[in-house]
Amino acid sequence: MEAMADRAFWGRMVETAVGAHHTNAALTGYCEVFYWREGNHEVDFVVKSGKSLVAIEVKSGRVES
User: The pTM is what?
Assistant: First the structure.
């Protein structure tokens, strides 16, 4: 739980885990994974499967209820 105390480190770890999951899916031919950036705007992962295209922005902050 020490990793969770450093919010920047934890965010990078969560983003890496999501990326690893989608990269493994891409290696099996299930989908393609891309990164998108235009100027100061970016999307962490763009996943294409068949005709479907999904943009994924990873956030690891707490959800307040």
Answer: 0.76
CB neighbour burial string for 12-50, b if at least 16 within 10 angstroms, e if fewer: eeebeebbeebeeebeeeebebeeeeeeeeeeebebeee
Beta strand 41-49 with 52-56 is antiparallel
**Structure token pair of residue 12:** 């990078």
pLDDT of 44-62, one tens digit each? Answer: 999 999 999 999 999 877 6
Q: Would residue 29 be called left, alpha or beta, if left means φ above 0 and alpha means ψ between -120 and 50 degrees?
A: left
Domain positions in the chain are 2-56
